[in-house]
Amino acid sequence: MKHIDIYEVLNKREIAGSEVTVCGWVRTFRDSAQVSFLELSDGTSFRRLQVVIDKTALTVDPECTKLGASVRVKGNVVKAFKGEGNELNALSVELLGKCPAEYPIQKKRTTLEFLRTIPHLRLRTNTFAAVFRVRSVAAQAIHRFFHERRFYYMNTPLITASDCEGAGEMFRVTTQPWNASYATEEEYYKNDFFGVKAGLSVSGQLEGEIAATALGKIYTFGPSFRAENSNTTRHLAEFWHVEPEVAFAELPDVIELAEELLKYLIRAVLDECPDEMAFFDSFVEKGLIEKLTQVANADFAVCEYTEAVGILKKENARFQFPVEWGCDLQSEHEKFLTEQVFKRPVFVIDYPKEIKSFYMKQNQDGKTVAAADLLVPGIGEIIGGSEREADREKLVAAMRERKMDMSAYEQYLALRTFGSVPHGGFGLGFERFVMYVTGMENIRDVALLPRWTKNIL
Ligand code: 4AD
Ligand code: MG
Prior knowledge:
CATH superfamily of the largest domain: Bira Bifunctional Protein, Domain 2
Number of helices: 13
Low-confidence stretches: none
Oligomer: single chain
Number of strands: 16
Structural class: alpha+beta
Bound molecules: 4-amino-1,4-dioxobutan-2-aminium adenosine-5'-monophosphate, magnesium ion
């Protein structure tokens, strides 16, 4: 269909004076005696294109003026009568698809809760279209960041036999009939597609380590799956995961990379999505641009878990879950640390080994591991990372303590046998990042079709 993007019509100065064809959905219609105005959006720009219809010269099918209808308009581009940019004087308006009055996206702002029930149409609203344009720009920036630094992009398998986080949150992958009955679990899996228990990957890290210990610096950017029952505003059953992994790196290197990435992405979104960010700043989170600009220019804090627990224990009265050394930090604790104590992003490092994964490097103290979680205001944990245990004996001991099935990890252990190196990396939850930069408060509003327990709309 020969036409040009509304973005170009609005923004290209040199286009004024020429005749163009655009396509889009009707967002508003205003009528007066002589002229009527259609505002069109085709998704390419936050701003809409005003189409001016001279009623003395052109009769338009009333269906073309209904909210949500899709149309093709030919017209002359002129400088906008009011405001910046261009508008279009219509020569013809043609209906592509009509839209009945029950169209659920009406002019007045509907609630996010309601829009969550119509995920297939909610992207036609300003808010959601802006979220997904920002999401796309951030995704491109992720690839750019790593490419510029010679990180290779790896595609790790989504079906796996090894549970990276060991939290028992793997979705099972099976081709067995629903009523298959076997005397033992072992027999069940022996007859299954892969001959062993398989599931959807919760993280590409273990496979990422294979690549990093050959290519040096790699990253993955793909979906991870977690069958966790937590019905929260920051968990999805399927989320996108950015996981760099670096050879010849220790915990401070991992922290530095994470901070650099986050700042780079914030700057990219601020630079490339000015209209969207101004909208979020006005209607979603007041002061968002100022906050992000500060974050992009500030040093992040670093705090040991033990020190964090010391701070939090004094505040135990305010928490639903009181804090003790050894406990996992809950969202309320994470938010308190980053919002009230440090008032900026903070890496909490050196967690007790019992609450972290088997693969983390064991510290000298025998009690903690070289982990680093990045906590940010409004969200809590946005990044989880660590230096990895490079010593085979120590790793095997940690796995034994957790009663892990070693057979699924032979390749992983072999990396520690043949030229083992200090290495590490982290995982950034992409949806959590999008929440952070847009100010959206529910992770279900930053994924196209969010999946969570009992929800697969
Ligand atoms: O902290 P996590 O579990 O760490 C890992 O998976 C490591 N293997 C990463 C690595 O070192 N390569 O997850 C990393 C991040 C979290 O900080 C969070 O942002 C996000 O992934 N995340 C989720 N996002 C949405 N929904 C969920 N259910 C998430 N679980 C984790
Ligand atoms: Mg984590």
